Amino acid sequence: MFDVVAVDMGGTNLRAAYFPTQEPEPAAQRKIPTQAHEGPEAVLQRLVSLIRDVAPAGHTTLRVGVAAPGPLDPRRGMVYGAPNLPGWHAVPLRDRLAEALGCLVYVGNDANLGAIGEWRHGAGRGVENLMYLNIGTGIGAGVIADGRLLLGARGLAAELGHMTVEPEGPVCGCGLRGHLEAVASGPALARQALERVQAGEPSSLANDIRSGKHVGGTDVGVAAQAGDPLALDIVIRAGEAIGRHLASLVHAFNPEVIVLGGGVSTLGSILLDPMERMLKAQLMSPAYIEGLRLVPAALGDDAGLIGAMVLAREM
Q1: For 166-205, what is each residue's pLDDT tens digit?
Q2: DSSP 163-226
């Protein structure tokens, strides 16, 4: 038996948790600011210190699992680039941590590990085929196919949020145009509200927008839930876009369950109803919908952390 420290690397915070057993309840955990603007070397140093702080004193059998933003190669532990981590280009994360800590280190895409976390310990327990979408600031995803995480040739598979849904649509954070993330993520909802209010459409968000106050996706969601027509229309359109995209993904992967996480996914029926309606309308056969369940994520922000624990424990 060995101890595991799982790490979740975010653009805002670094989180680490110590798991003495295979159960998903950590014995200790800690969070510190990432301070990503300081660059890779400074973040790596902070990460090493955080892992040492959380790991038990005198450990001899430690493994570390890291949920990192992609794109990355999990087999080599190489981060190719991370939008929220400036300067992270071809950083050998696994090897750098292993050298500093003197233990085995395993690295995975944070959304892929979110899928593993929900599959093993969350809303996807007991199935062999699962799709996980985390719809928040971005749209990350992971696919479990026939009881295995889908990785692809270089570990880059299942970027389901970076597939084109509107060929002439808005530019995505990755620099390409019309991806689902550019249409239905939290920042995408906020951008649409800003553009439509500035074009003269009435909304309860108008005063805040015109005064220069920051309006985010959460604000649009709250306004939609309160019945604001503009915000509600934006959320419904996002739900329809997600539903159309899900239909294509269901055709590709034929999952038993679709697990929805992230802040946008918590908007409830105003998002989920148009999503499910469009999903069903776009399927080529009712056979695809038989037994298919759309369920909310059970682990919240801990999905990737728990997935990193599973990765380190079972490799």
Answers
A1: 999 999 988 999 999 999 999 999 999 999 999 999 999 9
A2: SBS-TTSPBPTTS-BSBHHHHHSHHHHHHHHHHHHHTT---TTHHHHHTT----HHHHHHHHHT
Instruction: Write the CATH number for 16.
Output: 3.30.420.40
Q: What H or E segment, with its residue span, contains residue 262?
A: none
Rounded CA gap, 216 and 221, in Å? 9
Neighbour-count burial for 27-44, b at 16+ CB within 10 Å, e otherwise:
eeeeeeebebeeebeebb
Mean pLDDT, range 52-68, rounded to an integer: 89
Q: What is the pLDDT of residues 66-102, one digit of tens each?
A: 999 989 999 999 999 887 899 999 999 999 999 999 9
The distance from CA 207 to its chain's CA centroid, rounded to whole angstroms, is 32
79: domain range? 3-116+302-314
